[in-house]
Specification:
alpha/beta, seven-stranded mixed β-sheet, 30% strand, 34% helix, Rossmann fold
Amino acid sequence: MSESWDDYAQCWDSNETVILYSHKAYESLVNIVDLDGSNVLDFGCGTGLLTQRISEHANSVVALDPSEKMISVLTDKHLPNVKVINSELTQYLLTCTEGLCGSFDVIVASSALAFVSDYQATLNLLKQLLKKGGLLVQWDWLKDNDEPGIGFSKERIELALKQAGFSKYSTSVPFSMESPGGSMPVIMGIAEHS
């Protein structure tokens, strides 16, 4: 997966659609959570467009992405309260990286979870990283269950969150992106580690 994302790294931050998506995700995030003083994990952070916005308010941000070139672009931004990790999310990473498990108030995954090889297993790992009362917030393209392509249905997200052991969760469509083919709605899943 990371090799294909490496190909986009140098022009990612100048892509107007990517910038707008990141802006809209951030706006929908601050409508549901106060980031001031929080410890945040940005899962699938890419070049850090969302990371940078979050870091302006959060106490600390861990930015995780498997693409070496995406992480390199983020590292070159020299954000003082951001720690970058160039890796896939695995149980081994959680076990061997001190201070990861149970340390985050908020985990964000902006257009990232639809690209992992095992959505359910990834949610299970992300839950281990949350503090009690912490929130997991994901944004992905909304699609019907039987529709081809990248994204999730409301039912798929809610079932996966339930199976990951979240007792409080919800979905909404906070924004849409316009494309030549029409409007593309974005679904947001929110889950609390209770």
